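Protein in question passed on here:
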Amino acid sequence: VASSVVLVCATSASKSSELKLVMMPEEGLTGRGAVCLDGSDAGFYWRPAANEKDRNKWQIYFQGGGWCYNEVDCWARSRTGLGSSLYFPDAHSPDGLMSGDCDMNPDFCNFNRVFIAYCDGASFSGNRAESIS
C-alpha cells in the first residue's frame, strides 16, 4: 500500500483543523531520551485521516524553534513552550497547508496530519540524559 508524506509550514487557527496532543512518556528520561530541555516528555499533535481513501496519506510538520547556544539560553528557553511540554496546549489548530478545512486546503485536508512540537533546543537532535536546572 503506497503512502504520501508531505512536509509543510503551518500556523495556528480554526477548530475545524484541531489536532490532539499525544505525549510520549515511554520515550522520556527513562526511555530513549526524547525529552524537552526541562526534562518533560516530548509530544506531537495528530489527527487521523478524514476518510478511508486517504488513510495512507500523511502530512507531517516539524515546528521550528531555533537552537539555544549556551546554558543560560537553554535554561531560559526551558521555561517556555519551546523548551517544555508543560506549556503545550491539549489541542493545536493549524491553518494554511495544514488545515483540515477543505475550502482552505483542498489537496491535503483529509490526510492524516501530524504536527511535531519543538522543545529540545537542538532542532530535534537533542538527547539529554538529565534536565536543565
In short: Residues 21 and 90 are 5 Å apart (CA to CA). Confidence is low (pLDDT under 50) at residues 1-16. Residues 71-77 form the longest helix (7 residues).
